[in-house]
Structures are given as C-alpha cells and as structure tokens.
Design brief:
Blueprint: E1 7-11, H1 16-27, E2 31-36, H2 39-43, E3 53-57, H3 63-67, E4 71-72, E5 75-79, E6 82-85, E7 91-92, E8 97-98, H4 103-122, E9 129-133, H5 150-155, H6 158-173, E10 177-183, E11 185-187, E12 197-202, E13 205-208, E14 214-216, H7 217-227, E15 241-246
Parallel strand pairs: 1-2, 1-6, 2-3, 6-9, 9-10, 10-15, 11-14
Antiparallel strand pairs: 4-5, 7-8, 12-13, 12-15
InterPro entries: NAD(P)-bd_dom (IPR016040), NAD(P)-bd_dom_sf (IPR036291), Polyketide_Oxido-like (IPR051606)
Pfam families: NAD_binding_10 (PF13460)
Family: Belongs to the avfA family.
C-alpha cells in the first residue's frame, strides 16, 4: 500500500544524504519544502520543476527562516509531518579543523527553537518526526566503529564529532519525535543490492550491535526515506533512538 502524501521539510538538501532522501520524497509525491542558501543550486538538480517541491532561500541557523519551512503550505496552522536534517561542515584534514565547528549544534538549536515558537506564538499543531544525520564514533555506550578506525575517528574527526555530540544531546533532551541517523564513513554510489546493517542505541544502551567501515550517502538517504520520512505519520520503531548505518 502506498504511503499517504506527507509534508516534509529539508535542511541540507543540496547534496549527500539529504539530496538522496529528497529525490525519493519528491518521486513519492510528498510535498517537500527545502531551505537553501542558494536556491538555484537545488533547482538546477530538478530541471523538470516538480510541483510538489518548494525551494526557499535562507540559512538553517536562522530560526525564523527555519520556521518558514515547518508548516504545511495548505494549512499554515499545521506543522509538517517530518523533517530531514543533514547539514554539516567541511573538515580541513591539514589543520584537523572545520569551517564552522558549531554547524550542527546551531542548526539543531534553530530547528528546536523554531518548532517551539511556532507552537507558542502561532498555535501550530503537530509533532513532526525529525530525521537528523549524525555520525558513528560518538556513542556513550560502547565502540560502534571498527577498531582500526578508532585513531582516525579520535584525532582527525574530533572537531565534527564534538559538534554532533552537542546536537544529539539537545535532541535527547527535547520533547520532540526524532531518529538520529549515524552513518559510518560516507562514500558515493548507491548499492541497492547491498544489505544495510542497522546498529540501534536507546537512552539506556545498545539494543542491536553492528559495526562496519563504509556506507554511501545515497543509501543513507534511501534508508531515511524508507524507514523514517515515508512513515512519519505512524509509529516508527527507531523513534527516540540513535541508529548506526553501515554496509
């Protein structure tokens, strides 16, 4: 049975996991609202200009701009059904620093603030399911990456990991519905015939353990769509948990 049409907001949709999830959501007929600093960049990726794709200009760190994407175009008093959040920064491997070391924590703060303001100031209804891309290697419950990768994660990726830790903590402390998606090292190229293994952690610890090296951005987006975004109007098995994805 086909899923009922939903309204989904996208932050970080011009590439990687977010773009993969957006393509599938548009193809499935869901109303998709994407916030972009440069709308023409995303519009160029959809030359057929689908009527169910709304592209808005703005910064995902601006709570007001974020709020403008979180209500249904058909009913401004109703919040979207789901949110795909996949913004991130660029790591300089030479200096082991980031162009913006607070990119994810600021983005999640803007998202949570925007939802709270829409409810408090405008009476917006609904509880969207937030699919938030994070990373493996930051678990508080045990090693979720291969032992050989531990030094690389600890030193080369320290800056982005600290940022994502704060973002995750804010989600766990919120009253929102969410699924944290933690991919292993990201590559390009979808492999639809390759099994995606799922590592599951709840607040009390590891529920299902899977450890791996790589997964593609395209496959992460596909998993997000199939298991979270497309099912946002019903109970989702991974809700309130962190889910590691690897091949």
């Amino acid at each position: 049975m086909a899923a009922s049409p939903k309204t989904i907001a996208f932050f970080g949709a011009t590439g990687g996991c977010g773009l993969s999830a957006l393509r599938r959501s548009v193809a499935a007929g869901h109303v998709c609202i994407a916030l972009c600093r440069t709308p023409s960049k995303l519009e160029a990726l959809f030359p057929d200009k689908p009527s169910n794709l709304v592209v808005r200009e703005g910064n995902a760190h601006d709570a007001k701009a974020v709020a403008g994407c979180l209500t249904s175009p058909a009913d401004q008093g109703r919040l979207v059904d789901a949110v795909s959040f996949s913004i991130g920064g660029v790591v300089n491997m030479g200096s082991l620093s980031m162009d913006d070391p607070d990119v994810c924590k600021k983005g999640v703060a803007a998202l949570l603030d925007a939802l709270a303001d829409l409810r408090a100031s405008w009476g917006a209804r609904g509880r969207p399911l937030l699919a938030v891309v994070s990373t493996t290697g930051i678990s508080e419950h045990g090693r979720d990456v291969p032992l050989l990768l531990t030094p690389f994660y600890r030193y080369a990726l320290h800056a982005p990991h600290e940022d994502k830790k704060v973002a995750e903590k804010r989600l766990f402390a919120s009253q929102e519905r969410f699924v944290i998606v933690r991919p292993s090292l990201l590559t390009d190229g979808e492999k639809a015939d390759k099994k995606i293994r799922v590592h599951v952690e709840g607040p009390s610890g590891i529920e299902t353990k899977e450890v791996g090296y790589f997964i593609s951005r395209q496959d992460v987006g596909r998993w997000m769509f199939d298991n979270v975004l497309d099912k946002a109007d019903s109970a989702v098995a991974y809700e309130g948990k962190a889910v590691g994805l690897t091949w």
